[in-house]
Fold each of these.
Amino acid sequence: MKKIETSRRKFLQGTVSLCIYATASMATPLTTTKTSASIKFKTTPYVCNMCRNKCAGFARVEDGVVTKLDPNPYFPKSRNMLCPKGNAGIQALYDTDRLKYPLIRIGERGDGRYKRVTWDEAYTYIKEKLVTILEEQKDNRSTIAYCNGEGFNKDEYIQFFGGKLGSANFLDEGSICLNTKLGATQLTIGDIGEMDVAGSDYLIISGANRYESLITPDSIDMLQSQQKLVVLDPRCTMTAMKADTYLPLNPGTDLAFCLSMIYIAITEELYDKAYVKNYFEDFEKLKEHILSEHYTAKWAEGKTHIPAEKIEAVTRAFFAAKNPLYYLGRRSVWSQNDFQFRRAMVLINALAGSINRKGGIIFGNPIKLPKEEITEPYYNNTQDRFDLEGIVYGSRKGGSWLNFREKVVTQTAPYPVQAMFIRKHNLMQNMPNITKTKKMLEMMELVVVLDTMPSDTAMMADVILPECTYLEREDMVVSFNRLEPSLALRNKVIDPLYESKSMQDILKGLGEKLSKPLFKVSLKYDEELQESLQELGEKRAFSEGGYDFTELYKEDISSRNKKLILSTFDEKVYLSLKEKGVWYPYMKERKERQNYLYDYYPEEKKYYTVSRDYKVKCYLKKLALSGFDAMPTWREGDDFKVPKDSFRMITGRYITSTQTATTNNSMLRDIQESNSVWINDKVAKERGIKQGDKVIITSGIARVIIEAYPTNKIAPEVVWFAHGFGSNSMELSHAFGKGASDNMIIEDSFEKIYGCATMHETNVTIRRV
Amino acid sequence: MANYGMAFDYKLCINCHACEVACKEENGIDLGAKNHRLWIQEEGETRGDFWNLERSEVRLIQRQCQECQDAPCIKACPNDAIYTDENGIVRLYKEKCDLSLVCMNACPYDARYIDEKNKITDKCIFCADTRLARGEVTTACQITCPAKLRYFGDLDDPQSEISQVLKQRKHFTLKPEAKTKPKLFYLD
């Protein structure tokens, strides 16, 4: 981890730096604002953005100040609750460290020295850089990469930089998150589906920590249901603590457990025979494969450390249940076998017949929203993305971060990537091997960051464009869920603070500045465009060709929303979204079950089963043709092994943090000030490591210092610490210098089916400072 | 006029801290780990070695003022600053509090903390001067709870949900030996 020298801190104080606004904002004290007894203040329905869930709430505003966020009882997805992060949205809004003004870098990348500029100056700077870059690259638009983490507005951001500006290089969180799970489900049953946790009477969860990483409605439904819960995890999490059966296991061996479940289901004929007959393709191939590999419970015991009789008992109980569900997880990809593991879980659900029915993986019936259409120009000199090379499937949308970064850093990409637009995506913390990410950003001619916080990534930017938080903007209406589908609208609670703007307003300003000059670059290099100009004249060639980047932004977001909603639904729907933040067809039939918990849809109206032609694909030919296993298979390399005196490093998070997005939140820091490393208590004792001791954790790429937390809740050859700490940006006054960053030491490797970073394959050593 | 109490379906707790944050936001409680009207206490521990963990001894207990009907803090206060209001909630005349801290020491439940901002000993009052004062019928911790494990209402109203749940389910109070007659109940 980078050491912070006091000399530089002193140096910073004397320069034009971010410090100017950090001190200017000290007027706001670090306290909460008590709500008043008065009823005269209004509440505005909004949609939370503190994590990926998007729960609905009502914000209370008193004299222009947001004083309280409360859960929205109308939204089926979030079940009338707000988690600690949702409640602490107020501290995200009023964080004194927020990015407040457009900034242009005046120091070295990463040292935090910036000057405040006007929005126009920032746009102009970007324009000049982009024109130079595109001239040099002869209008290959893909030299400008752009990325956006999870959240609303992502598609619109893609429409701007991909559709209008023309780059093929978009990256998102999928390849450092759950693309293997989405892909495995899609390829096996033809849809990514949705898991009906509430309807399941027997739930197996591998690794996903639903009680410390809340997913709505899944986590809430688990709390309320009477189902049997079985948890597999190399760490005894809160979810494991609450399970009826907890099966501790070796990291990365869940696939062996799954294979054994399939073996037992086949040999004991526990599977749903009618379902298999009607829906399975290549079941005989699967059967033959599983049987010939002898994936017995005893075999799986040797891989997983779970006793064979427990594997058998859980398998029998699962297949005997009426509505069993093997939860497909959401979490980061762990090992090279991740895709096969996720696919094995889908197949287990299918063998039980738990597809397209209550308590299983359902297809459901999401509410369809129309798309706003724009004209996208065609750039003849633009080259395709290169990050999916060597990857079997991969996501055409969000690509593969690690493959992309590798090719950029080693200069093995077919063309140089010279600029990067980064929105809501903390690259400097979010993927393994931070040193390499830094190198990638240092190679760029232009780095632009759109964000709310001076994150580690923002500190690497040439231009910082301050975006407002979710409480300061309206966003386009969003359709949620499949079983109990609904629409939700993020209404604006207060106007943007400081000089921050919504993404739409930022893109509008940027578009006004960029459209014509970049069109001129194309004209120079694009012969077809030159012909079209001859034919139509410049004005028409520009407008009819779709080169006006602001096409979507002729109207403000409220008007766009209204138009979009009324194009498909009636006025009542629009009013409901404005007043209640939510709309769904059976709202009037919502009933209180108990203590402010509701049944949102009448039981018979839930989309448990829909009419659908689909097959369960046991055998994926494309995988075989690419030299991979067409059916889930255990490979020798999957065995859990660590060298003597080493540990497998695994990661996860605390309930109070959303990756690094919430890392500077003063309220959440109050609860979880720092992270510490879990190490098995007996092992710690042997090594003389006590609680609170500072230890050095060393991997093949770096080392970090962190406090030790000896506990019997982790396996002897495993260590764990939470993601979301160890920020290196000095502008994050609550986060800087607290705890350690997992991605400093996690080695970068990726699996080859979806190009996803494998997070649990790093071995580390540990010693006291 | 009501006789407010709370019942906890305590086994549902996952210690997510939503109640603590909601309480702080609603009632303007200062940041800082020491300042809180409510907290979750982990009792017991997981025993055994990792591969054979015994998890059953661990309990997560919601802690806050127990709204004693025979409250030691009321008796102890030398300034008669503490009283029971018309809704059966133990309250404080702020101007009478001189931070003698006698009430803090008298409380068997450790429910009070020093509110530095207002120079008083503060504790949970069921959002009496915020939500209840506005006519709302839920507390901040109750409504935000993902598990909805907190039942709040009028113990004197036999039709209230809390009265019903206490009638139907076995429950206990904390430290019955202190003979404080708490109005907070833990459902078995």
Amino acid sequence: MFRRALENKQLVAGLALGTVVLLLGIIGPFIFGDYAKQSLSMTHKPVGTPGFMFGTDGLGRDLAARVTFGIRISLIVAVSVTAIAVIAGTLVGLIAGYVKGAVDTVISSSIDFVWGFPLILVAVLAAASIGSGLVPVILAVGMVNTVAIARVVRGEVLGISEREFVVAAKSGGYSTPRIVIRHIVPNIIPVVLVLSSYYVAVAIIAEASLSFVGLGAQPPLPSLGQMVSDGRNFLRLNHWEATIPGGIIFAMVLSVSLIGDGLRDLLDPRLRTAVERAVNK
Amino acid sequence: MTAIVKQALLTFLLLMLSSLAVFAAIRLSGGDVTAARLPASATAEDRELFREQIGLNKPILVQYVNYLGKVVRGDLGNSLTNNAKISSLATEKIKNSLILGGAAIVMVFGVGIPLGMLAASRRNTWLDASISSVSVAGMAVPNFWLALLVVWLFSSTLGWFPSAGQGGFKYLVLPSLVLAAEGIALTVRMTRSAMLENLSQDFVRTLRASGLSESRIYFKHVLRNSLLPIISLAGLRVGQIVGYALVVETIFGWPGVGQILVNGVLRRDYPIVQFFSLVLVVVVILGNLAASAGYVLANPRLRK
Amino acid sequence: MITEAPLLDIKDLSVGLCAKNVAYDIVRNVGLTINHNEILALVGESGCGKSVTALSILQLQMSPPLFITSGSIVYDGRDLTKLSKSEMRSVRGSEIAMIFQDPMSSLDPMFTVGALLTSAAYAHQSVGKDVAEKMALEALADAGIEDPERRFNEYPFQLSGGVSQRVMIALALVNKPKLLIADEPTTALDVTVQAQILDRLKELSKNRGMSIMLITHNLGVVASVADRMAVMYAGEVVEMGAVSDVFDKPQHPYTTGLLGAVPRLGGAASDLTPISGRVPQPDELPIGCAFVDRCSRALVQCSTIRPILQVRGRAEVRCHNPVG
């Protein structure tokens, strides 16, 4: 199967891109130093200025230092939010889908309640209630993602529960936790994996969008979205201030999406080639 | 049809609950209302008194009902920023957002579906590959960045379109394009995969065996079947557009609900936030309802 | 004996699979004829190429990856393999019609039965709405549907398996074809419904003077419905003749094996003799006879020389050492 993984161009491209960005995020801050240090004599410098690989922003801060730290923030927020959402959502979905009955009705109604709501709106409202900062972002994104994941997991579990091997296990008298862990969970892992990658991407964009409008990570923390917003006024002067952070966000989301697409192609056993179809007629 | 009536009732319930939730969330944090209205030298007792006067110490449900009563009567309160009557702002802002959102939705389906069909019919050619990769990229681009890119390209460099504000059709082009971008990309992908999936179904073979032309099969039969999943997710598209409108209106200075809401949150202008977030919640819920109704109408299995 | 020209004459047809790393023939040098007013059964196990053969008559095979690599299919004086796309289209559904195995998935779920039927009518004749509807209702009645007006307005998901198959038959009958190809039309249906559908097909053939090419793996069906039969194995026709002749005196060892493996009422289980071994895959075919590894009558030349289809007695056989 690993060979097939390597053949999948999307997966490879996504992993390659993602690794580059990840490395930048991990190692960058160590190389580039303090993101908050201002040099009021060296403001708005372009890429390639000696000493400042990516240039500087309006307060003379090293863009490279800020961008690489910003990567960390985005990734930490996105991954932690998604991790919480996946765990919570999978649990909720498992319970709703396996236990069914009244429990399911209650859970499903709550899910439908939140389901159609745009992430950003929820986050904005959370910011209105709690105040700006990373906390409302994490809360809002986490909640909406949990619900979305729970919904899908529930659907899958419902489908799997009806299949013969589960019915057989149930009638064999196996205990519920055992059935769930040994039979159902392995079958939903592929779906959950693909979903996680999608929602990591969603979380990255949400965090960036919120920082862009001013809600989200507050200064001096260098959020990539906020950097784009700051740089927006200086497009003619030094467009790198907006282009680089924006480009990095794009690269992060693209790599995660590609990985997700690649994973889905890889794990979907229902994919059959035209050859097989034709011959099997 | 009873399904739709049931849905409508549930939707109404949902509306009430959502607006209550929004209302409560904002009111409960409203300690700062006093900070905005009273001078900094006000004592704690003064604040308590003020609260009582405004009615902030009554139970939330009561406050909510009072608020609703006021809304129905047209008294939407005043903005804390400039004390303007919200009711006079409301129509203008809502109208502007509807124009922008409407244009975006038209583009999402009017551009997305044909492009997806094109990609499916030219499967595995360079045309398909380019359409597909552009849509993958389209989904990954954060739309505020896309907005900046688009402004830089079409406005600053080429000078074709204005970069901000509102005025005529020219002003609408860039913002609605940016707003629709992700929706278009998603619709292209969905249309393409649905068309391809349906093209390999057994019923297509039967239609061919009956002697129908390829184009009739494609445009009448395969398309009709492919539209189902697209319609089923149309509600999500509406929600998505509402969400992104917050950002897009801000960037392009489009004077709609999104822009005023974001400013309101930043400035802690609670009456503004209260009312306009309600508007958006209503739009999202109604949009979902319309999409569900559309799906039921489109799917013969549910019509009977 | 006056023999008129056959309705459909397939000569030396080969259909190959051409994909990334593979290229082999699924159908090999198949020759078949169907005469006017007759029912020909095309018999064989799954994978023997009978469906692909049938599909390629109307160019309905999935191309890519399947391609007709040689041979001709002559209908009404024209070689169907050489027709342009629009010429082929005018043959499909009007001269030659086809029905398929799984009726539940073979009807477009978004359209009513009536809409599908009238579409088929409009595809070949410029008629008005009323005439087309009449044609549709007539076809439904001919297919044995009891309440045509009601079914006209129903959607496929509202129909049972048997009714959907009748709708498919109606679809095939609308433009009054001369040849109906039926690919395992009853395999997916209940046993009781199977018999009804087959009877109906037989009646239709007689009443309309329509020939039927019936593809099946069920010898019982062959015996009750068909006039002539052709047995296929590993992409080739190995025996062909009148049903009564072949059943009475099968000549190809595979045919004998097939008949010996059919349970008969009153017989004991020990009377069943399965054929040992398995069907060779298309990419592992021997140079000589495809059946050689499973044949109890194999001669030396069977492994190296591929036998040709020849007349022997009252039938045609492809064998170096036929029975009897």
